[in-house]
Amino acid sequence: MNNFFYYLLFSSAILFYGLGIERIITVQKNYKILVLNYLKSLCAVCITVIISAFFTQTVLNHFMIAQLYPFFTLIVFIFVSLFINFIIYKAIKEVAFDFSTSFLFALLAVHESSNFLDSIVISVACVTAYYFVQVLLISFKKHFDFYKQPEKIHTVSLLYINIAVLIFSLFAWNISWLNPAGLQ
Fold first, then answer.
1. pLDDT tens-digit map of 62-89
2. Which of 57, 88, 99, 131 could disulfide-link 38, Cβ–Cβ 3.0 to 4.6 Å?
3. Separation CA 12–CA 10 (nearest Å)
4. Phi and psi at residue 11, in whole multiples of 5°?
5. Is the dihedral of CA 61, 63, 68, 74 positive or negative?
6. pTM for this one?
């Protein structure tokens, strides 16, 4: 549970690593599409991480070629995402999937995990953090619509400023730089 909250808030793939920031800014205001994309990304990333982590820990580590896990993760993610998009398209006739960001979440989960359960927890936390920040930015955009903005400031600039404030608020608790031993 600690890993989940750590990767959800403090080491968020979006806020700490910057994965998907460029896509979050262009977020839609439709919650139904957002929930559908969340479920598709969560399924694709989790299935990819389960297969890739298992294969990496059993086969690639056994043959001492674990450096090939990004390539194998990409191949697995392509097939899983195509399968999920096919199923979703047959069910509701809609395909919208964030391929690159979801792949990076799967790669991050496989890379930073120490065991099989950690990889699943990290992947769920990364995808959840991505869509949590999107919901926050939707509320920021709705807030910006209520007020008249200065002429020379665009909404995108205000969103980046809000992301910076969010990052500072999450990382302000880390005061390790105030250590007296570091000042000597």
1. 888 988 999 999 999 999 999 988 888 8
2. 131
3. 6
4. -120, 45
5. negative
6. 0.79
Low pLDDT (below 70) residues in the chain: 1, 10-11, 26-29, 94-97, 144-155, 170-184
Per the structure block, which two tokens stand in for 33? 């599409």
Say if CB 123 and CB 105 are below 8 A apart: yes
* 3-state SS, one letter per residue, for the chain: CHHHHHHHHHCCCCCCCCCCHHHHCCCCCCHHHHHHHHHHHHHHHHHHHHHHHHHHHHHHCCCCCHHHHHHHHHHHHHHHHHHHHHHHHHHHCCCCCCHHHHHHHHHHHHHHCCCHHHHHHHHHHHHHHHHHHHHHHHHHHHHHHHCCCCCCCCHHHHHHHHHHHHHHHHHCCCCHHHCHHHHC
Query: Which pair of structure tokens corresponds to residue 182?
Result: 């570091």
